[in-house]
Amino acid sequence: MSETSAGSCCSVGGNATVDAAGRKDLLAPSATDVAVCVVMGGSIAKSDAEAAGLYRDHEGERYYFCCAGCAPKFDADPGKYVTAA
Fold first, then answer.
1. Are the C-beta atoms of residues 81 and 58 closer than 8 Å to each other?
2. What was the pLDDT predicted at 23?
3. pLDDT at residue 43 is higher than 70
4. Buried (b) or exposed (e) across 21-55, using 16+ Cβ within 10 A?
5. Mean pLDDT of the chain
């Protein structure tokens, strides 16, 4: 139902909740379920990221990624992305 795409480096998981006609998308993730990728800044539903393995736990915090390309970048230098978050 959402006709606008938002967010990620690979166009996965936008956070648009209103379609072009102004109707609320009842299937869109809630604001508390949306995470921002610490690598590229895209958004993704936390539940989708966890189901796809697009997250890492680092020093007691969970970090989410918008696409599979972001995880290896984070793994290579987590400190770079954690300080930017």
1. no
2. 73
3. yes
4. eeeeeeebbeeeebbbbbbbebbbbbebbeeeebb
5. 78
pLDDT at 19: 59
The token pair that represents 63 in the structure block: 């970090």
Task: List, in sequence order, every beta strand (DSSP E) within 1-85.
Answer: 34-36, 43-45, 55-58, 61-64
The 8 Å CB, 24+ separation contacts for 34-37 are 35/64, 36/64, 37/8, 37/9, 37/64, 37/65, 37/66, 37/67, 37/70
Q: Counting Cβ atoms within 10 Å, is residue 67 exposed (0-12), middle (13-18) or buried (19+)? A: buried
Residue with tokens 């290896």: 72
pTM over 0.70: no
CB 7 within 8 A of CB 14: yes
| Length of the chain (residues) | 85
Find how far residue 38's CA is from the centre of its chain.
Answer: 9
